[in-house]
């Protein structure tokens, strides 16, 4: 569902994955079947719920083995940008992601990549 053109299907698909991925067998299946790239792509959705579910899913899927695939400079930079959002749901969840899953060095490197504003990120409309 994450590759569909219909944003409703993507939103419900990522929501379902978010709900299922805490199950160990589902987590292993998602990680072993290339699901991370599809989930990361959902971070650029124009739908608030899709993005929030994608961030939450990435946090749930972060393990010792998957950490290097999830905590990449583009994802960390995206979370830095979300943390600056006026949308409290985005900023709070992104701050938790940065504090709990990233090192200070990773966050600083992401901040230094460019001048961060929320401009250029397709944040959902309120």
TrEMBL record:
InterPro entries listed in its UniProt record: ARM-like, ARM-type_fold, ARMC7
SUPFAM superfamilies referenced in this protein's UniProt entry, alphabetically: ARM repeat
Highest taxon above the source species: Eukaryota
PANTHER family, per database record: ARMADILLO REPEAT-CONTAINING PROTEIN 7
Stated name of the protein: Armadillo repeat-containing domain-containing protein
């Amino acid at each position: 569902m994450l590759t569909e053109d219909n944003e409703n299907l993507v939103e419900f698909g990522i929501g379902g994955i978010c709900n299922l991925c805490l199950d160990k067998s589902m987590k292993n299946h998602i990680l072993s079947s290339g699901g991370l790239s599809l989930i990361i792509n959902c971070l650029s959705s124009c739908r608030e719920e899709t993005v929030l579910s994608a961030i939450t899913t990435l946090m749930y899927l972060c393990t010792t083995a998957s950490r290097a695939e999830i905590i990449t400079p583009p994802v960390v930079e995206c979370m830095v940008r979300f943390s600056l959002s006026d949308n409290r749901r985005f900023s709070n969840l992104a701050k938790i992601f940065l504090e709990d899953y990233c090192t200070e060095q990773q966050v600083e490197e992401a901040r230094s990549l460019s001048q961060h504003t929320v401009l250029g990120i397709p944040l959902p409309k309120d």
